[in-house]
Amino acid sequence: MLKINDKLTVPLDDIEWQAIRAQGAGGQNVNKVSSAIHLRFDINASSLPDWAKHKLLDLKDKRITKEGVIVIKAQQFRKQDKNYDDALKRLATLIRDATVIVKARRATRPSRNSVRNRLESKTRHANLKATRGKVGRDD
Q1: What is the pTM of this model?
Q2: pLDDT, tens only, 18-32
Q3: Which of 4, 47, 66, 124 could bridge across to 8 with cysteines, CB 3.0–4.6 Å?
Q4: How many Å apart are CA 117 and CA 137, to the nearest integer?
Q5: CA 99 – CA 127 distance, rounded (Å)
């Protein structure tokens, strides 16, 4: 089970992964060893609750295809198991960030004292500017 948060977990059976050859530097080893991980997670076929599926599908993320499949390619490390752990961690982070319930903002009013202080400050600043004037010549 992949633990997303205290209330949400994803069975590892819902996650499809494949070992592929990594790109980039690595010398001759990169041509022989499949150390990168290509992880696929079908949102619609998963065991996530419907509200979580809708939130994930509404995301504007380049890792989510039109069919509703999350595709993550992990190739940062040279070891396959580290890349697998990294891909799972990135999937959990994506799901966790998408399913955070945003607390509704309640409008508040400024306190009477803060309004009074703001107006006094404005008055002081206006009086300071009023005392400034053009310097005239007495000829």
Answers
A1: 0.66
A2: 888 877 666 666 667
A3: 4
A4: 39
A5: 53
Q: Which residues pair with 138 in a beta bridge?
A: none
Torsion from C-alpha of 49, 50, 56, 59, nearest 10 degrees: -150
Query: Encoding tokens for residue 105?
Result: 């903002």
* Bridge partners, residue 37, by sequence: 19, 74
Domain spanning 2-98 has what CATH number?
Answer: 3.30.160.20
Task: Give the integer Cα–Cα distance in Å for 83 and 35.
Answer: 7
CA 35/CA 22 separation, integer angstroms: 6
pLDDT tens-place string over residues 70-83: 898 888 888 888 88
3-class secondary structure per residue, the chain: CEECCCCCEECHHHEEEEEECCCCCCHHHHHCCCCEEEEEEECCCCCCCHHHHHHHHHCCCCCECCCCEEEEEECCCCCHHHHHHHHHHHHHHHHHHHCCCCCCCCCCCCCHHHHHHHHHHHHHHHHHHHHCCCCCCCC
